[in-house]
Specification:
The structure holds two protein chains of two kinds. Chain A is an all-alpha fold. Chain A is about 70% helix and about 0% strand. A two-stranded antiparallel sheet of chain A has the order 1-4. Chain B has one domain: Orthogonal Bundle (ABC transporter involved in vitamin B12 uptake, BtuC), CATH 1.10.3470. Chain B is globular. At the A-B interface, α6, α11 and α14 of A face α4, α9 and α11 of B.
């Protein structure tokens, strides 16, 4: 199964007709989804898609290039603040403001990539973490970014208002389609990127940076490039997130958010784009839906409330989400280090070789 | 004024140093960067708070119970979460400790709620002395200095003269050789976690009495402590204490000049130092073999 016989087969964007068929079917399913889902879930879907974009980008850095980042909430924030700031202060239309903000994020990613050339492991973790905190602090201190009071996103106008034609997206559903199109483009380009010279250089750096350098991979270029690309994805995701939420303040982008992003990638499966998508979907669903009102959850809700009354506090039950996330993180590393992608591979292998 | 800044900076730096020693003990022994350090300490402090509030024990009794609890907590986390992981990568280990952090933070929030509480230790922050003119030193700072000195001396004696300490040092230097010599390496890992949890709990009590007690209160101090550990090189215990002191001084002086940028100066310093010396100030940089 999945045997590659020559180079050209390896670099094909779509591996087989089966993959193409199911991808197309899934896309069509996603495009028709708003017709039969309640409107609250559209908001949830928007958040999920935004996080999928970010997780795919983070996976390029963590899963493919092997660099750790605990500061991705910083890039996310740059995307969100950058887009809104460009739109409100410079009247840049959304279609230009979003990529522009993402390029600003990518530039900061490049800057952060420079110390990463000399650091690894815990040292890199603390440097990226410091970066995330610094961004949060800067946008919280400078009044031009709304300070601690936060910012409201302007109306999302896809046209160019100055030239007379506006196309304002008002409902969650129309925003869903916009984000879906962008997410599809971003995911396909990520898959494509991993099949190119650049993607292979990233993987080589992950497996052994010294060996990669000996083989002619320019570490300076490719490590900073990995940070920049990853930050670009985070910037796009942040810009969209600003409009999905409508309102955000600096504390939206705290360190816990960076950890949650990392959890998405690790839970989904490192070094796999499908894994990043699955991880982002699962974790976002858990965070925004299932664990938000855990006392009303089926089966376990009443039990948890009873436990809270006896030994804990009922008001503190909202922290249950944090406990569950922590247990998921620990459990996935102990029992399934490849994440959900590993589970998927095992299921696939089982059925492909069935009944053996 | 400068003397005042130095004293305060050194006191808070010694606190960072105590936390950072915990990070270093674990990192040296098992090469795990423990991101749950701060939350382990936070949880222990909450235990002390709970004992004081509900059972009205005298402080020193509560302190001793908390210390025992802290050691057990550290041992438990190592035993339950890190030991079962089969051949984890460096990133996997970081994720496990981050998971433990979220878990402990959630548990503390569930049990004690998110509102801020006052935590008092006998060494008050408001009782001050003025030994030299212009230099005001609080009981709290004196307490930090004394406790830090005692702990350093105890750690030195522990690693130098006890069988357990020597076994731990052997584990740090070469795991396989230590195993051959009859040291149970896994137990040394557990012990390192217990010891580091203990150091963290002591430091956290000082932090809590300086500010307030809530499930998030150790996040910032832990990050600073971690920064101090990185500054000191993550390898030598005296180096880390110096790193903590340096960080406290830099932060205090910088905070005096530009107060609004005080929270991030620590990290800017770290990034700058790491760019020049990638393994911290006091550690030898080893080039990795392929």
């Amino acid at each position: 199964m999945d045997m590659k016989r020559d180079y050209y087969e390896d670099i094909e964007l779509i591996g087989s007709g089966v993959v193409l068929f199911w991808s197309a079917a899934f896309l069509i399913f996603l495009f028709t989804l708003p017709f039969y889902t309640p409107s609250y879930y559209i908001y949830l879907l928007n958040i999920i898609l935004v996080h999928v974009i970010l997780a795919v980008g983070l996976n390029i850095l963590v899963g493919y290039t092997g660099q750790i980042s605990l500061g991705h909430a910083g890039f996310f924030a740059i995307g969100a603040y950058g887009t809104v700031f460009l739109m409100t202060h410079f009247q840049v239309p959304f279609i230009f403001a979003l990529p522009l903000a993402a390029f600003i994020a990518a530039f900061f990613g490049f800057i952060l990539g420079l110390p990463a050339l000399r650091l690894e492991g815990p040292y890199l973790a603390i440097a990226t973490l410091g970066f995330g905190l610094a961004i949060m602090h800067v946008i919280g201190t400078w009044d031009i970014f709304g300070g601690r009071m936060g910012l409201h996103a302007p109306p999302l106008d896809l046209g160019i208002p100055k030239m007379g034609f506006g196309w304002v997206l008002e409902s969650d559903v129309s925003m869903y389609y916009l984000i879906l199109v962008i997410a599809t483009i971003m995911i396909v380009s990520a898959i494509n990127l991993m099949k190119t010279r650049i993607g292979r250089a990233f993987v080589a750096i992950r497996d052994s940076d010294i060996a990669a350098e000996v083989m002619g991979v320019n570490l300076t270029i490719y490590k900073t490039l990995a940070f920049a690309i990853s930050a670009f994805y985070a910037g796009i995701a942040g810009g969209l997130f600003a409009f999905v939420c409508g309102f955000f303040d600096p504390f939206t982008f705290n360190m816990i958010l960076s950890i949650v992003f990392l959890v998405m990638v690790v839970v989904g499966g490192l070094g796999s784009i499908l894994g990043a998508i699955m991880g982002a979907t699962l974790i976002t669903y858990l965070q925004y839906d299932l664990l938000k009102n855990v006392s009303e959850a089926p089966y376990v809700g009443d039990f948890l409330v009873a436990v809270s009354k006896k030994w804990f506090t009922v008001i503190g039950l909202e922290n249950f989400g944090s406990i569950a996330l922590g247990l998921i993180m620990i459990g996935i590393i102990i029992f399934e280090p490849l994440g959900m992608y590993g589970v998927w591979i095992r299921i696939k292998k089982y059925w492909m070789t069935w009944p053996f | 004024m400068i003397g005042q800044l130095i004293v305060e900076g050194l006191a808070i730096g010694a606190c960072y140093g105590l936390m950072a020693i915990g990070v270093v003990i674990i990192y040296k022994t098992s090469e795990v960067v423990n991101f749950a350090q701060g939350e382990m300490a936070m949880f222990s402090t909450f235990i002390a708070y709970h004992i004081l509030l509900h059972y009205h024990f005298p402080f020193w009794q509560a302190f001793l119970i908390t210390m025992v609890f802290a050691i057990l907590l550290g041992v438990f986390i190592e035993f339950a979460f890190l030991r079962p992981a089969k051949e984890p990568t460096a990133l996997g280990l970081i994720v496990i400790t981050l998971g433990a952090e979220m878990l402990l933070m959630g548990l503390a929030g569930w049990k004690w709620g998110a509102e801020q509480k006052a935590f008092k230790i006998p060494m008050s922050f408001s009782v001050t002395h003025e030994p030299i003119k212009g230099v005001i030193i609080s009981d709290w700072a004196i307490g930090v200095f004394v406790i830090a000195a005692i702990l350093m001396a105890l750690l030195y004696l522990f690693f130098k003269y006890t069988r357990l300490g020597v076994a731990m040092k052997a584990t740090q230097q070469n795991k396989n050789a230590a195993k051959i010599m009859g040291v149970r390496v896994e137990r040394m890992f557990s012990l390192a976690w217990g010891l580091s949890s203990l150091m963290g709990a002591i430091a956290a009590m000082f932090f809590a009495s300086r500010a307030t007690l809530d499930p998030n209160f150790m996040m910032e101090p832990f990050l600073r402590a971690f920064a101090a550990a990185v500054l000191g090189g993550l390898m030598s215990i005296p180096g880390v204490l110096i790193g903590g002191g340096l960080l406290g001084l830099i932060e205090n002086f910088f905070g005096y000049v530009w107060p609004e940028w005080k929270p991030i100066v620590a990290f800017l310093v770290i990034v700058l130092v790491l760019c020049v010396r990638p393994s911290g100030l006091f550690a030898k940089h080893y080039i990795k073999k392929v």
